[in-house]
């Protein structure tokens, strides 16, 4: 009995240590920082080209200091190895502060700050994740060019499936994201892989 208890404690400690290794740090701006997020000059056209050169897609995440849903996204969703590893392998994620002053160059060449970009593009919720096309279109804003937008916090499978749907270019097909998501959920249920994190 003591060996079983000692083994359980050891496993729990290892799990806690593993989760600590992947926990996002909070920066001076109050935003959670993932080690695999990309820091750029926030020139959207250049970022799209860089992502493509790396075989990835560009995703922008808008967050703000004190956002409990942003914290939940980092602590519960992005800390999950299945989610984190898929996104890091397939997307270049650039973090934006909803009320930040860093300079941003929109696709149409207009120079903004993070906060004026969020206002111009109509993003009012945090977190909001914006998915950009593989090629930078000329004369459009980010909001006009985005192939998908995910406003708010969701559970693991909705979150991960949106990234998969974009990577698989579901927006170019007839299967709406909600249909795609329902199909994947049914497949996961059939495999017995679905917990309460739907």
Automatic annotation (TrEMBL):
<dbReference type="Pfam" id="PF13098">
    <property type="entry name" value="Thioredoxin_2"/>
</dbReference>
<protein>
    <submittedName>
        <fullName>Thioredoxin-related protein</fullName>
    </submittedName>
</protein>
<keyword id="KW-0732">Signal</keyword>
<dbReference type="InterPro" id="IPR036249">
    <property type="entry name" value="Thioredoxin-like_sf"/>
</dbReference>
<feature type="domain" description="Thioredoxin-like fold">
    <location>
        <begin position="51"/>
        <end position="135"/>
    </location>
</feature>
<dbReference type="InterPro" id="IPR012336">
    <property type="entry name" value="Thioredoxin-like_fold"/>
</dbReference>
<feature type="signal peptide">
    <location>
        <begin position="1"/>
        <end position="23"/>
    </location>
</feature>
<dbReference type="InterPro" id="IPR041737">
    <property type="entry name" value="SoxW"/>
</dbReference>
């Amino acid at each position: 009995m003591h060996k079983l208890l000692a083994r359980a404690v050891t496993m729990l400690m290892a799990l806690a240590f593993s989760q600590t290794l992947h926990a996002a740090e909070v920066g001076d701006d109050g935003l959670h920082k993932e080690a695999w997020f990309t820091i750029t000059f926030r020139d959207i056209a250049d970022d799209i080209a860089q992502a493509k050169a790396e075989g990835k897609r560009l995703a922008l995440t808008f967050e703000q200091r004190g956002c409990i849903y942003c914290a939940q996204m980092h602590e519960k969703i992005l800390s999950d190895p299945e989610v984190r590893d898929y996104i890091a392998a397939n997307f270049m994620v650039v973090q934006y502060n909803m009320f930040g002053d860093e300079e941003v160059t929109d696709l149409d060449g207009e120079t903004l700050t993070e906060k004026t970009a969020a206002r111009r593009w109509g993003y009012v919720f945090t977190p909001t994740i914006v998915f950009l096309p593989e090629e930078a279109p000329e004369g459009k804003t980010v909001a006009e060019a985005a192939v998908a937008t995910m406003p708010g916090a969701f559970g693991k499978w909705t979150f991960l499936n949106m990234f998969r749907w974009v990577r698989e270019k579901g927006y170019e097909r007839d299967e709406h994201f909600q249909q795609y998501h329902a199909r994947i959920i049914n497949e996961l249920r059939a495999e017995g892989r679905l917990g309460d994190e739907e």
